[in-house]
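Hi, here's the filled form for the chain we discussed.

Project: internal
Contact: R.S.
Residues: 541
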Amino acid sequence: MLVADIDTIVQGDEEPGGDGVLLTRLARRLQSRIPMLCTLKTFYDGRENVPTMHVPSSLRSEASTDVYKRFVEICPMNLASTIANAVITNQQPTGFRLVKDQTMRSTAADDMWDTCRMYLKSRQMFYDAGVYGAAYAYVTGVEYPSWIQILSPWNTFVSDDEDSAVVYSYSPDDGVERLTLFNMVRNDDGSPSSVYSHVAYRQTDARTIPSESDDEAVYGLANDPDDVNIAFSNDFQWEAGIETGYKYAVACGCLPVVKMSTPTGKGQFEASIPTLKSIDQQRFQRFCIQEMQAFRQRAVSGDLPEYYDEDHPDVIAGRAMAGDRINYDEIFEMGPAALWMMPKETSVWESAVTDVTPLVTAASSDIKQLAGATGTPLSVLSPDVAGSAEGARLTTRTLALKVQDLNMRANDAFVRILRMALVASGQSSAADERFETTWQPVNLPTDLEQTQAANFVKNIIPVKTIMRRYLHMTESDIAEAMQDLEDESFITALAAENRILEDTTSNQYSTGISDPLMESGLLDGSQSSLTGGLEAGEALA
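And the returned structure, exactly as it came back:
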């Protein structure tokens, strides 16, 4: 393949290996991913539509249109969000520690984490990775508004080698959309030489890529892929100047745009979308069957006269005239106490009940297969599943292993993000520091289990190790607990000393002695002996 043959989106920049070709390649990969992102968001929100083309044409009448429209709205089961949230909610970072000393807390990384509000921003990254398969963060290099900003996978794409990235933005006030190219230049030995960004722009009245918050556009594209064509036009122009102020990124050897991805680069339920569609389709069919059975079809067979004759009971009773057309809608009126008067030799037929149990059973089987395929415990997708506690632990093992794998991948992204942020803030030594993210256990034991385990190993393992491994406390919690222990020891020692002083004072008051010699301990004999010796001396005198 010749790179020069690529039709670049930047006017006049078709140099092979140049920024125009690189930007075009990244932008096209970004735009090709958007339809799937729309589908993923639609399923996560539970707003996917059952294709009405599968409804028999004989049933698509005007009278039934509203009914089927209602079924389309309520039939989605929204299992996608449950599958994704089972992973997202179990990813709980608790802090950072230096690798060179496993017991040393990385206070600089923790402070940067809190300063940039990453305790909230990380939740967004977990959501993006869980639903869309990738999450992105950008280290700005300036303190305000934040050293670290979260980028949306709807607007960002990073190359496979992570040496280049593109970020899309649109300004409705100016009517300008921009594509920012980030690129790393390496030396012959592979070491980073420089990092720069180059911005291309174009005037437009509308976005090329829909916004994630634009539900109407997202749901419309997901449920009708032929409705919208997403493609960048080829009338972009380069802005003057290239930004090269990314020394902190060069020092850390990575782009300022960091990607956190799943093992396959896909969302947690992306591979199971066909199964989710089949479950929704079965629910739609079951709703249609149940609705039709709620209003059973009835028929009257036999010889039914069309006009009243003179012998008809209604004519004899004066309720009708002979020769008038008989209105069978009034005769066969529905009602709890309705009584039909029918001619002789006629009978009523009523449609039979259709058993929907096979459809329910099939849907339950599909849910079980879905749980196994996505590594989600069946008890999460189907809460009525009964079993033992040990069985529940075995079913959650796959989920635990999946979360641990994602935590390891997230650790790599978090370390790179924080290292660049620390270097940008003036802590140049952080570029050579090695630290890692600490995580809360996936299957957090109960308080009773934690205290029992800690009690078994006390006097064998140091207190801090017990707090860290058995009580699952963060380094901040451990530091706070150790300070509380020191305060408690000081208070206990002070109370003991006060009791000794109080006991000494009470003894002095009980004996009536306040002589300094007695208080100093120089006199330990009894008062009677001292008094006897003084009296004997006076007698001799």
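Let me know if anything looks off before we file it.
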